[in-house]
Amino acid sequence: MSNAPAANPIAQTTSSPHREGIEAARRYRLPFGRQSWRGYQGAWQGAGTGSSIDFQDHRAYAPGDDPRYIHWAAYARTGQLTMKLYRAEVSPMVDVVVDVSESMTFDAAKAARTEALVAFAVASADAAGAPVRVFAARGRETRPVPVESARAGDWRGRLALVGRALPSAPSHLPWRAGALKVLVCDLLFPGDPSLLLSAMSAGGGSAVVFAPALATEAEPPLRGNVELVDCESGEKRHQRIDDDLAARYGAAYERHFELWDESARRCGATLVRVPCEDALVNVLGGEALVRGAVEVTR
């Protein structure tokens, strides 16, 4: 056993995608600046009242109030005791949920991009001093991920999810009211997008979806008689793929994500597809930055 001193857990990366996510968090961050937050004491201006120096409002004195915040100048004018209220200083809460269904890992590039996005979200929360929780989800099954494991990049090996499941949207997710809610999911399942997105947006806060996307998923790569295997269920099917079927598949694929975009706008969520073929820091500086899924670090 080595006697070397323990390193910072954030620096103990186990994969290049994990390092890539941490590096990207030095240039970009989650969209903390888009709103005021309610949460724990910290360095971000919040929506509530607290002890920061920025005067916000006043109200009538009530027994038990801290006399240090009595508005004595107003009392001298009116004879009525009133309390000074100040803008709270809070750290926004961050909830990160990563879809671990088989479609997220059947391709090495998508699995790597998923790892990088989780690392980016956790490192971004840590840099902001934001309390962060991480969960792995597959359909109706959700498991907490120790945040220390997420910081070290070894969270997959600690999951208790086993077996296969039918393709379905992650559900019953433990979003905290008022939190910045981050979902890493490819969205490749049937159903109404608004069910998942409205649950994310409920309770205030902010909802961001990062959808890892492969260019090869947009069109069947093969023609002729092929054997198709459902990566989620393992079901096999023989199918003849010609140009007409490939075109119909491509149109359905495009419409699928149009419905997700439309639903995200209605629900007030920010959804961005994250290509897997380029460096994460380059990808985040494109559509993700334009749509407000990330912002430049200050």
Give the biggest sheet: 6 strands, mixed
Structural class: alpha/beta
The level of helicity is: 25-40%
Instruction: Please tally the helical runs, counting DSSP H or I stretches of 4 or more residues.
Output: 7
Please tell me how large the radius of gyration is.
Answer: 23 Å
Mean pLDDT: 82
Q: Strand-residue fraction?
A: 25-35%
What is the succession of H and E elements? Answer: HEEHEEHEEHEHEEEHEHE
Reading side by side through the largest sheet, how are the strands ordered?
Answer: 6-5-4-7-8-11
Q: Pick out the low-confidence regions.
A: 1-14, 47-53
Number of strands: 12
Oligomer: single chain
What characteristic shape results from the CA principal axes?
elongated
Instruction: Note the gap between the termini.
Output: 41 Å
Please sum up the structure shown.
The protein is α/β, with parallel strands linked by helices and 298 residues long.
Write the layout of secondary structure elements.
Elements: H1 16-27, E1 28-29, E2 39-60, H2 72-78, E3 82-92, E4 94-99, H3 108-127, E5 132-138, E6 141-145, H4 147-152, E7 180-184, H5 193-201, E8 206-213, E9 224-229, E10 236-241, H6 243-267, E11 270-275, H7 280-291, E12 295-296
Parallel strand pairs: 4-5, 4-7, 7-8, 8-11
Antiparallel strand pairs: 1-12, 2-3, 5-6, 9-10
Overall description:
The chain has 298 residues and is α/β, with parallel strands linked by helices. Strands 6-5-4-7-8-11 form a 6-stranded mixed beta sheet, sandwiched between helices. Strands 1-12 form a two-stranded antiparallel sheet. Strand 9 and strand 10 form a beta hairpin. The longest helix has 25 residues. The two termini are 41 Å apart. The N terminus is likely disordered.
